[in-house]
Amino acid sequence: MILADVLEKTEYELVKGKVNKEITSLVYDSRKVKEGSVFVCISGSIRDAHDFIPEVIGKGAAAIVIEKEVEEINGLSKLLEMNSTANVTFVKVKNARSALARMSAAYFGHPTDDLITIGITGTKGKTTTTYMIKDILDKAGIPTGLIGTVEIIIGDEIIHSGNTTPESYSVQNYFRRMVDSGLKAVVMEVSSQGLMMNRVEGITFDYGIFTNLEPDHIGENEHKDFEDYMYWKSTLFQKCKTGIFNCDSEYLEGILKGHTCTVETFGLSEKADYRATDISFLQKDGKLETRYKVAGKRNFEVDLNMPGMFSVYNSLTAIALCSHFNVPDEIIRKTLPNVYVKGRTEIVNVSSRIKGAPDFTVMIDYAHNAMALESLLTTLRAYKPKRLVSVFGCGGNRAKSRRFEMGEVSSRLSDLTIVTSDNPRFEEPEAIIADIVTGVKKADGKYITITDRREAVKYAIKNAEQGDVIVIAGKGHEDYQEIRGAKYHMDERELIYDAIKECNEA
């Protein structure tokens, strides 16, 4: 491939060398540079790739993309004077992340030209909604890929996900593989960080979706404040043709600011294009179900094997989107009850597997901050459980305030809180638990502490009562526990099945 072709939609200044030359690969990780590579220097918060320029030159890089002035890069001026870079092209850009995104699209042959692209942003609901949309479109004969927090799905291939929105090079790589696999559409989670870090730069989404907005991801290494968080969410709607919005959100006006797309809405409001009416919550046989009617641009009944108002909003979003594909009512109605998302209000059949056990419900959910936990527990209260039991911990080396807040929320909304370990990382689990208990004591709920998460899950199941709802929160889809820099296998489902086995043996 010719370097000039990779740079075709990127604004740049040629510092040295020529762009009419063959290149072998495009990389942003110095460890992956080989003979003929183009190396893009990303200035990260921990490492600055400009520091690795001498190393990549030694590995045979054909071209280097920089975003700093030559004089600001350690040793580069001297290398240029010594003619140590005789065969290397240097290209300067204003923003290396933006350049990487545009270069990646060109490198992989602009795969979005052959895909219908659907981007979803919001604080909550992104993951579940992507699965709903994918499943419906698949059933309607429109094979669809998925990029999200839990995994990347390309046909029958499933790839572990590291970020909600991967780096731009990976995004374009996945798009190319989807096109080559015969997929016609892709639905992806678009995080505020992904937007801020140019991971979807240069993509014009066919559809952009806004689920909701609440304060989150605000801190030293994320967004400086809520306004910054909202701004970056809103930029998706300057990158899409059609926007589908939750009109019940109090932040809708802020999200719409600067939008360039056509606007459609969903929600409970009478003014929504797609609205939910006659909502009811049902509990039977250890399951939590939701039922409602769609009104407005579509009219039919919806049954979900998922609990709560957030499930109503998520499914309503999927219905609004899939209406643009003319998916028949019956396909949507038959598909939605069977949507499964690992670690998102995931019901595990327990009581029917234990001889003589009372009828109770066990749920796994990713709720790992106070906002998410409060939303989940409040939702479950609507099902009028005999007891609401929450099992959770907090991650180590994270803000202590999260521990106090989650402890208080659980104590206030749960009948019993079982405080345990999550991912302690480099902290002692007992110290984290002590912080959570400080928050628990601010309300009047009963609580116990069991450091070993396996034993905590076992205790909850062995002591379940008729009509209980047990929530195991915080880890969701994760299948590991992170302790002192190492990840050890631990899957919540396996912990539950081990508890079932012990109950039956007893």
Oligomerization state: single chain
How is the main sheet built? 11 strands, mixed
The strand order across the widest sheet is 9-8-7-10-6-11-12-13-14-15-16
Mean pLDDT: 94
Distance N to C terminus? 66 Å
Structural class: alpha/beta
Can you tell me the number of structural domains? 3
The outline comes out as globular
In the CATH hierarchy, what is the architecture of the largest domain at level 2? 3-Layer(aba) Sandwich
- Broad CATH class of the largest domain: Alpha Beta
Per DSSP E runs of 2 or more residues, the count of β-strands stands at 24
Unreliable stretches = none
* Proportion in helices: 25-40%
CATH homologous superfamily name of the largest domain? Mur-like, catalytic domain
- Give me the number of helical elements: 16
What is the element layout, followed by pairings?
Blueprint (H helix, E strand, L loop, with lengths): L2 H4 L6 E4 L8 E3 L9 E4 L12 H6 L4 E4 L9 H6 L7 E4 L3 H12 L8 E6 L4 H14 L4 E4 L3 E4 L2 E4 L7 H13 L4 E5 L2 H5 L8 E6 L15 H9 L5 E7 L5 H5 L5 E6 L6 E11 L2 E10 L3 E5 L3 H15 L6 H7 L10 E3 L12 E5 L4 H12 L6 E5 L7 H14 L2 E4 L9 H12 L5 E4 L3 H10 L6 E5 L6 E4 L2 E4 L2 H14 L1
